[in-house]
Amino acid sequence: MKSYTPVRLVVVLIVVTAWLIGGTPGRAESNDIDDLRQEVTALKRTLQSLNARVESLERQVSARPESNAPVAAALENAAPAAGPAATPSIPQASVRERWHNITRGMSLEQVEALIGHPERTMKVSANTVWYYSYPDVGSGSVVFAADGSVIDWQHPPFNTWW
Amino acid sequence: MKSSRLGVWEETKGSRQQPHGRFLIISVALVAFAVLGARDAKAVPSFARQTGLACSSCHTVFLELTAFGRAFKMHGYTAQAMKEQLEEPGTDKVAPLNINRTFPLSVMLQTSLTRTDKQQPGTQNANVEFPQQLSIFLAGEITPHIGMFLQATYTGQDDNFTLDNTDIRYANDTEIGDRELIYGVTLNNNPTVEDLWHSTPAWTFPFASADSAPSPAAGALVDGALAQQVAGLGGYFLWNKHLYANVTLYRSAQIGAPQPPSTTSNGTLRDVAPYWRVAWQQTWGPNYLEVGTFGLFAQVIPTGTAGATNKFTDLAFDAQYERALGTDSLSAHVTYIYENQQLDATHAAGGSSNESDKLHTVRLDGIYHFQNQLALSLGYFLIHGTSDSGLYAPAAISGSANGSPDSDGVLAEIAYFPWQNVRLSALYTAYTEFNGGANNYDGSGRDAFDNNTLYLLIWLVY
Q: Is this prediction's pTM over 0.80?
């Protein structure tokens, strides 16, 4: 049987106490990694959920061209909120087609049904300008005369360099 | 405009003017083209691509600016609140790099037919120019506070590309008390090109016109004679949305001439030429009114870089009125320019009969816009000044039999815009007096109304 000297006993007690209070450094690292893994797993689940939501919204937009659903808002929800480095996931083809269906003389209601509610409106002389902005695509606008009919528009720069 | 400038330049070089009077004649005659000659026109689609705003946000019809168009120019061709730009990570306040998503490139094509009531001797009438002008624009935002409007133009008559109107700006805004102050710096190459209204020479009606038809011999220096011949650095501000002021100092920067100016140079400015501008704008109900004044003082050395000069003092008053009429709109402009010409150099060289001359220029126009698809315009112009048989000598078509610079007439134009970037127009100019007379004004048997001009234009911008 081993015999414990007072000094050895003190050292043992210190180590045991430290372990009981805060754990060892190696134990702390292990806990951090576990926490990170859990967070990553949670983020993955969130991302999967968001992707599913985006796909659902895209399907709704594509399947209901007559819908009053605000395309701009849908796109804003669908687009990544991160910075410009993020990859755009916008169904540009659908939005482009809707913008190209705008014709002179359309009413405010018809334009809203087609491309959704504007991000903002402006008054330019007697005309009203509806302004749309699509993340990672660009901006467009529709100009209405005083009688509420379309007189001009500028579509967003879909895949155009200039 | 480059084409008109060079066109008259060539014409003047071939005339029998005295060398010392040449620049004066050039500057005076050139301006005549500025009064009636071909003009620049700038409605730039790259601005629309940059901001996402339709053409009619900035233009009633191109190139007439709306209130928003004026604000856009005032802000240095930038639209901080609307722009689409790429940002790279940087400080919290200012990104280290801001680049337009769209490259600020636009193109413009003008092709025209010009027919005078009586053909110019030895020439074919109903002249077609294809193109009259082909321009490339670099126009848009460079940084959130710096933008530019740069035009390079090919003209059929000169068969080359050269720098046309250019305006590079820095702009910002702040508040003094509770009043907004927009301020900026402009670097440009044509006095009045920095202006916001269509009652100053660079942007006045007609917005495009014939460059192959005869035009009056006289015009003030500020009325376009220095276009692309100078470089100017100036500052401007708009206080409380009402008071606008601008001062720019111009110095010779002639394109196509040897650098630096030397003994062979023509029309070099001594020191700098100050240009000033003050305007007040007011809106009430559907009405908008701008009233203002502008002017220029320049000492011009006819030949070389030293010696006697001709001193030009230009003082002008202008006004612009706009009114919305349902879905239509009306605009009207008036400009009066008084010029005092102290012709020390030219007179000493025998190029003018008088030591000093006066010149008065009046322009009026009204434009009715049927929505933004059709514009009907009527204009009147008058040039009246001191008779000077040395300055305005008899010469076929371009000269004056009695030495008078007096000319006046009316303009009528119809312009159709099937799309906002396509302008199809017909402009008719009718003279009641040309270079001092109605009949046999040039001493060679030509009448003023022989110079009446029909100008058909197809104008595309993209």
A: no
